Amino acid sequence: MTPALSSLAQRIAAKLSSSQQNDNFLRHDFHALTSAGLDMEKRFDKAEKIPAPPHEMRLAALRRFRLAEELTEREWRMVFYGLVDTDPLHPNQPILLEDEQLFPEVNSAIKKRIETKTLKRRDWAALCASYFAYRNETPESNPHWCVLRGHIAQGYLVVKSAIRREKSWMKTIEFYHDIFTPQAGGVISQQLLAGESNSLSSLEKIAQIPDSSWLWKRIFTVLLAQLDTLDDPHYLDKIIWLLGLAAQWVRFRDDIMTATLTRYYHSTYRDQAHSALKQAALEYWDNPQLKSQQNKWHQYVSEPVAAMVRGWLAKQDLMHFFELLRGNGDVDQARLHYWLRFANQMGFTRIVMGQDAWTDRDSDFVKFREENRGRLSHLRGGRSFDNAMIMQINDYIFVEFSGTGNAMYAYRIGEAPFNPESGSLEINVHLKSQGRCILRLPHAPRAYGYSNVRITGWMLKYDDELHKLGIRWMAEEPIKFVDKKESSPTSLSDVKIINPLRDTAIQRLLENISCIVSDNRQKGGVLSVQLKTPDDTTERELLRLGFTPVAKEPHRYWIK
Questions:
Q1: Per-residue pLDDT tens digits for 315-326
Q2: Final residue belonging to a domain, choices 205, 220, 235
Q3: Same domain for 85 and 68?
Q4: What's the chain's Rg over C-alpha atoms?
Q5: pTM above 0.70, yes or no
């Protein structure tokens, strides 16, 4: 029961006791009042969020403050809420948090409330709202913001000491203790990675964290950087969860997809398509095989990562073409085997389906058409069961046809009588143009007894002709296994010069330090430094240069 209710109950009881006249007086202990008091107390505990005041109220207080007028406690609270507010009547005025002239006065007002222990929870919540709403990717570059961060941390202790018993919102704040430190976001990112996000919504309410806050960017930066610390099986288990985050956090969707795809590329699984990851990438970024979409892909991932996804699509198309779309029932496994060898070099593939494949109501066909919507073309002419497969390798386009007995046609890009991305192609006019093709090769003599390391029959002729075009079979690039615990001497070359000023400073710092350096920034990863022995001076300098400590890994730091 709150002190006020308890006091009221005691006074009422005393008054009734003193005025009691006879034994018939109904004696009781105010059970209803006690129950109501307990209910109110529970409701108060649950009222974690303190709603932010209207923008107009904050602006009114800010204008009075700028005019040096005396403010009430309520108006000071509005000022605390409005430290990052801009005034539409004075768009050129700096926000208070960046105002060299006026912020010292705000600073003094906050310090006074902390020192006299008069800071109220609503005042503290107002300061939190401004702290998290500051629109700056690197808020620590503003010394006033850093001062505010310190006041909030100290102010919490004042607010806590004034409350009779611990409230549920306090437990949440103390669990996420790092949000008011230079390491903000570390605890949350670790919790998210561990799959524990139950109280995250409570934190948003209590600390007044807007969706646009710098904190979320920092959380996801730390979280995604930690993907490099996971071994491959652990990372694989996280992919579906990461895709769920991408669907939920639209603002960071591209960042999540970039990190997830890049980490997959550096895993032992990269030659094996991940269906859900592939589908999500196509949904968000469209088809990397299309020229119109390639620049978009290159905004987010490196060319090798985009090539990995194109390879997945090529393998998928080849499997579908030679097995599902086998025309009149023939299926040539030899052709499938041969072209799969080149799938990792195919920049573009397109399946051109005849009438039968477009209208087949079998569940496999329905699913195939749905999953490949926008990636299929119509085949005109020929027989209804005919289908064609278009493959681009380097500067050449190769066309295969379903069923046996059809030759392969090859064209130079730019000289082919068709656009391979066209939605409709004619079999004889476009795809079988003997006057425009540079190669027309039958599948003879028959190939048999072939393997991954041995080709036979017509495959040998195909390889010879492709060699003349500068195309050679390349085995899938082997994955290098790295022992994360392995120590190696540090050299200046371990730190690549990407940001000249900063990276040169890092090189100088690490030159005579015993540490392990791993720089994967050019691959979409991070630069990490693991000190072999504790060194306070070096660690402070790493933090000053923008490094972030790796949670649960002492003396290890990372930077993008």
A1: 999 988 888 876
A2: 220
A3: yes
A4: 34
A5: no
